[in-house]
Design goal:
globular; 8 helices; about 40% helix; Rossmann fold; about 240 residues
Amino acid sequence: MITIDFKKLNITPSDKILDIGCGEGRHTIKACQQKDTVCIGADFGFNNLVETKKKLEFHQAINDLRCKTMDLSCMDVTNLPFKKNSLDIVICSEVLEHIPDDKKAISELIRILKPGKFLAISVPRFLPEKICWLLSDEYFNANMGHVRIYKKNTLISAVESFGVTFFSSHYAHSIHSPFWWLKCLVGPGRTDSKLVNLYHKLLVWDLMKKPKLTSFIDKLLNPILGKSLVLYFRKPGG
């Protein structure tokens, strides 16, 4: 499930790409499919990196990766082990809502980014996320916990305050919003809800088969129901 639009990042051969908070590797794999890039998948959770490694090995086996080199590493987004102005592309997808000191995390993302290069951030969109919080107290304590809900303009201002320029945005995954509302209604931790499990099968089918109908519905509803807010920034100079 790709949230970031890679076409907006102006990726060129030899670009160094960091996917921080990579989870199980969805954007790391996409980065490794870009020609002659240097890709780093990083996460605070070791188990996530193990899953990412397995998926990368699968894609290697089917000759689906085009990067020059790739690496996986445990990292803390508030204390990144890179020099200032050292990376061309930084991706931070569905991470900041988990971080108590998000200002420190944002400053680190921008510190390591080269002048003239691009930062992509995605977070849960305000309205779908707010509905989840209202439906269930358990929801925002799951998956390491969500500590805040972002409003678009507030987040843009916060990121721009560290010296980058906002240039584009979109919403993603509208068909996922009702799934999470339904899951919150029955209880986020439950695994025996037939309706939730059926919806999950639909989402997996959509992910694997990529049918035109669900893709059309998703794009049509994204401006209204998109689960994720995606923002793009450029660091001046270069």
